[in-house]
Amino acid sequence: MGSPATTALHRAVCTLLLASLGCVTGQPLGGESICTARSLARYNLAFAGKWSQTAFPKQYPLFRPPAQWSSLLGTTHSSDYSMWRENEYASNGLRDFVEQGEAWALMKEIEAAGEKLQSVHAVFSAPAVPSGTGQTASELEVHPRHSLVSFVVRIVPSPDWFVGVDSLDLCEGGRWKEQVALDLYPHDAGTDSGFTFSSPNFATIPQATVTEITSSSPSHPANSFYYPKLKSLPPMARVTLVRLRQSARAFVPPALDLVSRGNEITDNLSVPETPLDCEASLWSSWGLCNGPCGKLGVKSRTRYVLVQPANNGTPCPSLEEETECVPDNCV
C-alpha cells in the first residue's frame, strides 16, 4: 500500500486529469450507435468488498499484509478506449497497478488516450479499503459521447489479481440508467505467475492475456481460489452506481443492506460459506519393524495436515497407520 504522501499525490494527479480531460468532446467512430441523452449525468459509485474468511477460507491473508483492497481508479470514456479487457493483454500501466499498486503509468495512459483519441471524459478514484469486507465510494460524471465506465481495484495481497468493470454503459438509448449493481469476480492480469495470495514475484514470460479466475481455473491445488467442489466462486465484491439528482448534497444513497462501522461492513444477507476440505501430506516412509522373535511385529508411518478443514469441509483422515511385519531386529 502507498504512503499518505503517495496517496495525496495520486489524488492531486487525478484532480489534474479530471480538470484537463473533462472538456474533451470526442466524436464516435463511424457507424457506431451513440447515446442520445441530452445532458451530462453524475453517479455515486459504492464499492463493497465481500472478501471474507468465511467465503474464501483457503489461504485467507490474516497478516503481513491482511486481506484488503487498493484504491479504486477509474475513467468514463467512449468505446474506442479500453482500460482492460478479458482475453486481451494488460497494458504496462495496468500491470504496475495490479502488481505494485502504482498508478502513475496507468494515469498517464488514460491522459494520453484523452489527448490523442479524445476518448476519455473524466477520471475518478476512491480511497483504499483496509480490510476484505470494507467499503469505499466515489462520484463520477458521464457524457453522451463518453457513457462507458471502467475501473480497477487491486486485490491485496496477490501476484497480479484484481476486480473491476470493463466498459459498463450507463446510457440506454435516450436516457441515463437510474441504478446499476454488479457482482465482481477476481481476474488475473496475466503478468505474474504466482498461484497464491502471498506468492513472490514471478513474471509471466511471455505475457498472458487477462482472464477471470474461477473455482477450477487455474486448475492447480495450490491456487488460492481453487475450490473444485464449487460450480462458481462467490462474488469478491459488489459495485452499485446510482444516478445523482440535482446537487450531490441532496443525494441520499439507497439502502445497500449493510450495517456500517466506519468503512467496515457486515452484510445482512447470508454470507456464503465455502467448504474447505482437509488436505494431508503424503505418507512418510515405513518405520522399523519392532517385535519379539518368532512373532509378527508392527511398523508405522505418519503424515501431517497441510490445510485444516473449514465450513463443513471434508474432515482430516487418520494421520498414523500401522501394519504387521516381520521384525528386522527381533528381541
UniProtKB/TrEMBL annotation:
UniProt record, GO biological process: cell adhesion; innate immune response
Known SUPFAM superfamilies for this protein? TSP-1 type 1 repeat (SSF82895)
**Which range is the signal sequence, renumbered to this chain?**
1-26
One Gene Ontology cellular component annotation held by this UniProt entry: extracellular matrix
Known PROSITE patterns for this protein?
Answer: SPONDIN (PS51020), TSP1 (PS50092)
| Annotated keywords | Calcium, Cell adhesion, Disulfide bond, Extracellular matrix, Glycoprotein, Immunity, Innate immunity, Metal-binding, Secreted, Signal
Q: Name one GO molecular function term.
A: metal ion binding
Q: In what residue span(s) does the Spondin domain sit?
A: 31-221
User: What is the annotated localization of this protein?
Assistant: Secreted, Extracellular space, Extracellular matrix
**Self-association or partners: how does it assemble?**
Monomer. Interacts with integrin.
Protein name (record): Spondin-2
